[in-house]
Design a protein that fits this description.
Layout (H helix, E strand, L loop, with lengths): L5 E4 L15 E4 L18 H7 L22
């Protein structure tokens, strides 16, 4: 079973809200929420790749995309 890591939430938009409405908000669900225990013999990244990605196990890897300052510092 493949679980999508991003979920959408549709907040209530009241008729008297002072701010512009946000109809859809997205959030990430960490992959560790889908693994209740660590099974034996789980596949592992190489040491260099694990240090670069921040986890030893591919099943627990989740890429992080910053929503603030897209493109800042990458120029």
């Amino acid at each position: 079973m493949v679980n999508k890591q991003t979920r959408d939430w549709y907040p209530f938009v009241g008729p008297f809200d002072p701010c512009p409405p946000i109809y859809v908000k997205s959030y990430y669900v960490p992959p560790n929420q889908y693994i209740p225990f660590q099974p034996m013999g789980l596949q592992q990244f190489s040491l260099q790749e694990a240090l670069r990605l921040g986890t030893l196990w591919p099943a627990l890897y989740s890429p992080y995309e910053s929503k603030c300052g897209k493109g800042a510092g990458n120029e």
